[in-house]
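Issue 218. Parser rejects a valid record. Input:
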Amino acid sequence: MAGFLLALAAAIGGTRAQDYPSKPIALAANDITVISFGRADQAALTAAYYRSFRKSTGIDVKSASYDGQTTELEQMVKTGKTVWDVMQVESRTLQLGCQAGLFEKLDHGKIGDKSDFIPGAVSDCGVGIFAWSLALAYDADKVKRAPGSWADFWDVKKYPGKRGLRRSAKYTLEIALLSDGVPASEVYKLLATAQGVDRAFRRLDRIKADVLWWEAAAQPAAFLAAGNLVMTSAYTLWIDRERQRTKNFRIAWDGSLYDVDSWAIPKGTPRISDAYRFIAFASQPEYQKMLSENIAYGPANRKALPLLDAELARTMPSAEANLKRALKVDIAFWIRHGEELEKRFDGWAPAICRQQTDDDEDYDEQAYCQDVQGNLRTRSGPHKDKDGEPHKH
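Output the parser choked on:
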């Protein structure tokens, strides 16, 4: 999630850990430093956890944001001068960092009951903060009947119009197989074979001409709002933001993909006892409830869901009904196979046209790309076939 959270953070500013790499935050004896992803998360985390933790324990939380990279942490651990106490991390960073010895192996008995958490929320070095989801989103004003699955997404006759997909192998290949009837439990087993990968690309070939590719997390909701799409894969957080602006957007949860952001303790922090105390506090259902009330993430602790307003709880990625129909993203699979699959995908999908200005000649260097309307363009304009009609690649 770091990528799209940082996009928002960049727009509204915020304190970043990398702004003062040589000057650690000034701490009182009983303060702790918590590092997270940008102002958007910091505001919600402060409302749900930081203030309540200080009120309950007298320990102040000094918060800062980072870009998801571990370069600074690696230097701290190497020199034995760790100044961060708790970090918000994505699953990939957590798994690789745990293997590399950047994070402490957790004693979960100091945090809570493992069985209280949703699948994938507890690991050797991490415990879930929240669940996020990528799902099928659509504009209810532009479809006669609600799509209910990725199979509907592929039905361009029943649902004519452009549909959006993330321009990456990750998430998009899983969605392709789900749309072809592959059970969620079999998706990664199949994708680990050449036959499974070929099947996913053949499935994508069927709708390639009808796809508007997106890269930034905010784009699917923006494209829906602009009328460029009738449906799209999208991070549900951003669809929720648009719905708050009275947009008639809906989410079909069947076949959604989900993952978890986690708390981790940097290796060597001298305040490890207080770090455990903070994570245990933030893992309690009443405070996870507060987080979900401030930002549209699902609680990682199942016991928080009954505490939420029933209507709000139904919209959470970790709601029981939504989780039953969801696919947990397999980070280990993408660590092993990501490079080769992304390389193939990048050669298969059209490039995205870069923004052109009067002084920008980059567009001229792109012989073939897709614009924000979904049109395929060359240096001379929309791509046409031999009969003069726009070419559907």
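Fixed in the parser; the record now loads. The domain at 2-131+259-328 is CATH 3.40.190.10 (D-Maltodextrin-Binding Protein; domain 2).
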